[in-house]
Amino acid sequence: MSTGGGGGGPDGAALTVVVVAYGSSAMLAGALRPLDDTYPIIVVDNASSAGTRELVAASGATYIDPGANLGFAAAVNRAMARIAPLSGDVLLLNPDARIAPGEIGRLQELLHGAPDLAAVAPSLHADDSGRPARARWPWHTPAGAWAEAIGFSRRRLRSPSYFLGGAVLLLRREALADVGGLDERFFLYSEDEDWQKRACSRGWRVRYCPEVTAVHSAGGSEHDPVRLQLRLHAGIERYVRKWYGSAGWVLYRAGTIVGYVARGLTRRGPRRGAALRLARLYLAGPDRTALRAGAVPDLKP
Q1: Does residue 285 sit within a domain?
Q2: Which of 151-160, 170-179, 205-214, 220-229 has the lowest mean pLDDT?
Q3: Long-range own/partner contacts, residues 47-54 (CB < 8 A, 24 or more apart)
Q4: CB atoms < 10 A from the CB of 63, how many?
Q5: pLDDT class of 249 with cuts at 50, 70, 90
Q6: What is each CA distance from 85 to 3, 80, 81, in whole angstroms?
Q7: How high is the pLDDT of residue 150?
Q8: More exposed terminus of the chain, fewer Cβ within 10 Å: N or C?
Q9: How many separate domains does the chain show?
Q10: What DSSP line would sit under the chain, residue for residue?
Q11: Is 0.85 surpassed by the pTM of this model?
Q12: Where among 164, 193, 216 does a domain terminate?
């Protein structure tokens, strides 16, 4: 199958689906099956799995085996390098997510409905029952960490200032050409927020599209909750340090510790233990702890 762009978008706009696979090939099959050859698909297999290779070959998609676990950002960049020249929009699709071709078409129409939209994302359901899952978050900022620490988290979630999660995320071709690829210093998590931050700093916007729906079984490709948590918070630290510097990280870290300790003192049972464990993680430093545990590599600029 060609990776030069295809599919039926608005005004003939091309679109390629990029999936970074790691883990169960059965889960990946669930992501690929609804697409039904409507769009070109590139699968980057960070696990170098024979089962994944066979599945992708049978589906007619393009298979890339980088020979190592590159992390999400580097794998996406590897896939986009195969779309040469980058001739259309790119849909990032997690292997634990599903979206129908008709919903992709609606999402692309919304993306091209305004000239300054860099990225759009649908509303997410956790399963076929329609149970909602989160698709957007407030930006990670030092001020935001302190707002949450003193109890303003709900107000932050009502704010129109947010970034979109990367489980099902459609990126505009022109924005990719302007902003560039994902920052490979992020192994897993925060690369989506960082790309959108870079886009917004160049005058682009992002938009959440609740009228379009997809399914995302969060965390389906990683079954170790401790490693998952380490990777998440290490990514947040790298993001905050990149955009707000060392002083900004000190403020963010302090606000986060205060917030988790406060929650630990007011909650009971497992929720109290979870909050206090996160407070200890931020005291030790999430990135340092994740590096020592081997959850993330030491990715240099």
Answers
A1: yes
A2: 151-160
A3: 47/21, 47/22, 47/23, 49/21, 49/25, 51/25, 52/21, 52/25, 52/28, 54/25
A4: 17
A5: very high
A6: 10, 9, 8
A7: 87
A8: C
A9: 2
A10: ---S--S--GGG--EEEEEEE-S-HHHHHHHHGGGTTSS-EEEEETT--HHHHHHHHHHT-EEE--SS---HHHHHHHHHHTSSS--SEEEEE-TTEE--HHHHHHHHHHHTTSTTEEEEEEEEESSTT--EE--EEE---HHHHHHHHTT-HHHHHHSS-EEE-SSEEEE-HHHHHHH-S--TT-SSSSHHHHHHHHHHHTT-EEEEEEEEEEEE-TTTT---HHHHHHHHHHHHHHHHHHHHHHHHHHHHHHHHHHHHHHHHHH--HHHHHHHHHHHHHHHH-HHHHHHHHTSS-----
A11: yes
A12: 216
Q: What is the pLDDT of residues 90-105, one digit of tens each?
A: 999 999 999 999 999 9
Question: What local confidence, expressed as pLDDT, does residue 1 receive?
Answer: 33
Q: What is the domain-level CATH number for residue 189?
A: 3.90.550.60
Residues 130-143 pLDDT 10s: 788 899 999 999 99
pLDDT for 141-160, tens place per residue? Answer: 999 999 989 887 655 555 55
| One domain, residues 134 and 271 | no
